[in-house]
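Hi R.,

Here's the chain you asked about this morning:
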Amino acid sequence: MNMTMERIKTGIPELDNILGGFPAGKTILITGDPGTGKTIFGMEFAKSCCEQGIKTAYISTEESACDLRLQGKSFGWALESFEEKGTLKFIDITGKRAAEIKSALSISMDAQKGNFEDLIDNLPEGTRVLIIDSLGNHTSNLMSFEFRDRFDLLVYNLAIKGITALIILDSVTSKEFNDIALFSAYGAIQLMKKENPYTDRRERVMDIVKMRNTKTPIQLITYEIGPKGIELISASDVPPEP
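And here is the predicted structure, written out as C-alpha cells:
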C-alpha cells in the first residue's frame, strides 16, 4: 500500500498506475542488458521530475551530455528548457573529459576508482533527485566486499541527504554485483529481452523485482520503446496500486 509515503512520478504513466511512483528519498536500482532502454528509463524519470518542479541531477559516465540531449530530442523531450530553468543539471564524467569535470565540478577522480560517495559530494545545491548512469564504470577491479561497502555507504549518504536516486547498472556489473546491490536498494527493476514462445518473437519485458512499501506484480510486464519513450504493453493486466 502507498500509506502516506511521498511518491515521485516515474514519467511512465502505466508504471505509475502500478506503483504510484517511486518512493521519495529512496534509492532505486535499474539493471538490464544493452538495448533494453536503461538510459531512456533514466532520462524519462529525469524529465518527469523536472516537470514536477523537482531539481534533478543526471550523472552520465558513458554518454556525453550532448548525446543525451540529442536522444531526448528524438522522443520530443526539450531537456534544454529544464537546464535553462535550473531544474536539470547534466554532470558529464565520460572518458577523457573526467579530468576537466573534476576541476569544474570538484568531483574527485577517486570516484573513478570506486569511491561512489564522491559522486554526490558536490551536487548542485538543492538537488532532490539524482540519476547515475551508470555505476559500472566505477566498479573496475573491486572485490565483492569492496563493492558492498561502497554501495551501502552511497545509499546511506543519499538517504541522509533526502535524495531520491535512480542508479543504473550495466549487464556486466549487475551480473557480478546484482545480489549485493539488490539487498541495499529500496527498489529494483530489471529490464530484459526474452523470447515469446507463442509468437517466436523477442520482446522487451520488465520485472519489478522489489519495491518496499509497495504492492508489486509477480508477472513480467511487456514494454516497447516508442516514439515518446517507454510504453508498457501488458500493464492493463496488472492491478493498480491502491
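One quick note: The mean pLDDT is 87.

Cheers,
M.
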